[in-house]
Amino acid sequence: xxxxVARVLIDSPLPQLDRLFDYGxxxxxRETAVPGVRVRVPLRSAGRVADGxxxxxxxxxxxxxxxxxxxxxxxxxxxxxxxxxxxxxxxxERAAGNASDVIRLAVPGRQVRVEKSHLAAETSSxxxxxxxxxxxxxxxxxxxxRLAVDAIPGVAEVSPGVWAGRxxxxxxxxxxxxxxxxxxxxxxxxxxxxxxxLEAALSAVVPADLIVRLDAxxxxxxxxxSFLRCLPHEGRGGGPxxxxxxxxxxxxxxxxxxxxxxxxxxxPLHGEPLSPYVHTRDAALIRQEQQGTDLLFFxxxxxxxxxxxxxxxxxxSVAPVPAVHxxxxxxxxxxxxxxxxxxxxxxxxxxxEARGALETGPVLVQVARPGYAPRLSCADCRQSARCGRCxxxxxxxxxxxxxxxxxxxxxxxxxxxxxxxxxxxRLVGQGATRTAEDLGRAFPGVRIxxxxxxxxxxxxxxxxxxxxxxRGAEPIAAGGYRAxxxxxxxxxxxxxxxxxxxDCLRTWSNAAALAAHRAPVVLxxxxxxxxxxxxxxxxxxxxxxxxxxxxxxxxxxxxxxxxVTGSVQAVADAVAAVQGDGSDVLGPVDIPSTDGSxxxxxxxxxxxxxxxxxxxQALRAELVRNATGKRRPPVKSQQFVPRPTLRIRFDDVEPFxxx
Length: 659
What we know:
By secondary structure, the protein is an alpha/beta fold. The chain contains 17 helices and 30 strands.
């Protein structure tokens, strides 16, 4: 039977529209109305027209009435690939969200000129691919299936004068082997700094025209152009590609997918801030299951989520052969006995190691915060200094700058303490700029480089210099740093956070991995299990211990959680739908209103993984009920109609972080 019905997913955030709708296909659209294309369809309410995608074609169902017909096919390119639709549907169901929200992340907005050029491009044969060979430092026979790969610390010269982390070299080699067997690879990294390293490593082993960059830093036109290259009907003949980017690259179309690899899955940037808030790691796990690919998690430190999968036997653990780890020196019990060391607020050991290393090359100093003074307080009563306009915290960018609000930017020239009427401010904490000033006095004549979010620096030369960098913003040094100092450890571990330990260990490990071979890595002010794990380079054991504690306390990832936010009644109804049968509830707690809206509360529901589908379905039903329970008043009515008051987020770490 000839297909006469198009089943369309409407692009809408409304949960009640998150299903396929049947539309008739007019004769004029028979040739272009194919699965995956963008369409415009009529809605029955108020004569509106909506955008959507044809997901599938089929015969008429049981409905006996007249179907509305497609309004138009807005693009002839099937941009919604079948594997992406299957992933979006599954991911959204797991997170009680909308498939259209996932597809909005996966499919870039249409760029007409780019699309016309794409359609007009002549087909060409794919270039030859390199032969497969082993991944540096690992056994060839083990790089198949699902693996947690402990990355080799250190840097490597991937081409003359171009340096990258050895983790990037290993990922590039895995992608090269995948291309050699005729399959595509998707490589996901947290941010552009990691992506630059990975691109450099890939360029040395994979032909440039087989590498596709797909990330949020591209212009709309460039991103759409890269996206179209990934589609199987592209003129390259459907050959393999290496697709690299940040978290959304996990949704790139790739029918013949052979490898999914993630770098540093514990980085918060892998967490999606948009609904349905699905972490890159979770999307990768689902896609691997659907398409039967190899799956690799690379990292210098292991997240507790990956450790849980290793303990379950779902992932196999792979360590470098032979074992390689940096030379780490903890200094928790050491004081700054030297005058210059005290001036720089570092122990004598750190000062001596830095002074010796500066004779041969650059030294990295990792700090916790950017700016000059992360926080200001009243000099008299020590209460935090707040903005007189919005109550935001006051900060200072330099020694001579006027304090200003970190939230609204208002200048606090005539500040007065609301507690004691004091007028003098006191610096609390040291940011990158203030640390650079102190170290500059301790190491006179040494070049100082600051790298943070405002001053992004990707590479430094092998010349002597002090590189002051915030966590995650460390540049790559040619040949590796001759010494690494890890400062502010005591303030980092003092934070109230479920993940504070593993987060600190991850960022310290990544910084230590930038050191040259056997160069000293000095950890300042931290002892105990964290310092031991870093010094012995046994991050997996630390993650194992963390997971044991989480199981005892029923915290993620030992269990799954759903954070339910909204009005008191809406949250109570949602929680009642899933409470019991092994689940337990934390809360509710009040959420302060910042816009004058009605009071809201937040409740956390904890449940076992086996209950995930059941809980997601129940909470999804509550979302739909809450959204459809608000009726529109008559047109001339002045009655206020409240918007839906329920929001649900699965596996959210924010409630367990220090706000």
